[in-house]
Structures are given as C-alpha cells and as structure tokens.
Amino acid sequence: KLEEWEKWLNDCAVNEPYISVENKVDNTPPPTDFVYISQNKVPSFLDHLFDHNYLVGCNCQRCTPKSCECPKNSGGVFAYDRFGRVQFEPGKPIYECNSKCSCSESCRNRVVQRGRTVRVTIFRTYNGCGWGVKTMDPIMKNQFVTEYVGEVITNEEAEHRGRHYDAAGQTYLFDLDYNDGDCAYTIDAKKYGNISHFINHSCDPNLSVFGVWVDTLDPQMPRIAFFARRDIPAGEEITFDYLMT
Fold first, then answer.
1. Could you give phi then psi for residue 242, rounded to 5 degrees?
2. What CA–CA distances, in Å, run from 119 to 9, 69, 234?
3. Is 183 annotated as belonging to a binding site?
4. Residue 242 known to be catalytic
5. Does the annotation mark 36 as catalytic?
6. What is the pLDDT of residues 176-212, one digit of tens each?
7. Which top-level group of life is the source organism from (predicted)?
8. pLDDT tens across 126-159, in order?
C-alpha cells in the first residue's frame, strides 16, 4: 500500500521533485482521506480576489530592484538574493512578480510560485508524532522549501472545524492574519494539501514562515511559504512552530 500511495502522490505532484514514503516503525497504512494538491483550493466566491484586471505588473525584461515595480510594497528591495534565498526577516511581506508581469519565469523575483525544489520523504516517526517529513537533499539557510497549501475557508468555517480538530488533537488550520488584524480567511490542510500536511511541530524549528503575495494584492490573501532558518542536511526532519499558525 505504501508503494501505491507513493506512486499516487507523485502522479499528483506533477513537475515537483520526488516524494518518497517510508515506514520502519509500525504497520500504519497511508491516510485514505487525504487529497494531494499543489496549489490552494480557493472557493469560487473568492475568485474576484484573483482577478488579473486588478493586478499591476512590471514591464521589465530583466527585473532589478530599481527598475521593477513589484518590490515597492516590500520597501523597494528584492526579497531574494541571486540564489533565491530570502533576505528578509520573518514578518516582512514579500511581493513577487505576477502573471501580468513581462519578465520571464526565471526572474529573480519569482521563487515561491515556482514551487518546491527539494526531494522529500514522508516517514513514520519514532517519537509517536505520526507521519513527518524529512529532506533528501541538503538545504541552504534561507532557501525556499515548500508552501503551506490547502482549502481556503472563511474564519467562521475555521472556528467550526477547529472545534472538531481540537477535540481530536489535530492541527491543520493556518490563519491568513499576516497583518495581525481581523482574520478573514484560513487555510485548512486536513483533507486537501501537499507535503506540508505532514510537517511536524517543533519549539526549535528549522523552518521560518513568510507571507508571500503573487497573483493578488489583497492583504488578507498571502501565500504561506516556508524557508530554511539554517542549513539543513539531507536526511533531517523539517519542522515549523505551530504557534505561527
């Protein structure tokens, strides 16, 4: 069953680095109620937030911080160095070039939207934390690792689902309250998600959380991106602090 699930995951994760599955601990089968998605599942009543008519794109052929309009919301500085490593501290918003921009897909200001770049293994942990995720490739400090994706729901629906999840001891809700104001929307990764569904909590995590805007300027609709807090060797479990959700 694990081999079948591994094949299914990779069939779903089109154009993404390989996902391995490993269980050397017990006979727990893979989850049967999980649907792999690579992008957030956004309900149709929120489509207007991603209307390209409201986007402002740059006219650059080769983007630089001085010439490009997109990083102006980030203080006029590119969030990434030439290797794609984040240069900001967590808490500062990142505005990437978008689908209305003239620059190429290889633009320095397009990182999160290009997706995960490291191979990972979903594995059964030895410490009773269920499934976890470890990297199969070395990761550099400040390198993008993966995005937290799931079903985008309203805050009211999140409150309702959260009561059931809390009772079951589950944590899959990530509030999109980047500006610390009222939270209108939440990402629920319980049923729909990517490898981030399986990433465990740590009080000393090796991943940092950033809000990234790509094809919307709505302040309440960032994408949630994980970047490495330090160099992470191949074979190490990746973790983040659930209090950030």
1. -60, -20
2. 13, 33, 9
3. no
4. yes
5. no
6. 986 666 788 999 999 999 999 999 999 999 999 999 9
7. Eukaryota
8. 988 899 999 999 999 999 999 999 999 999 999 9
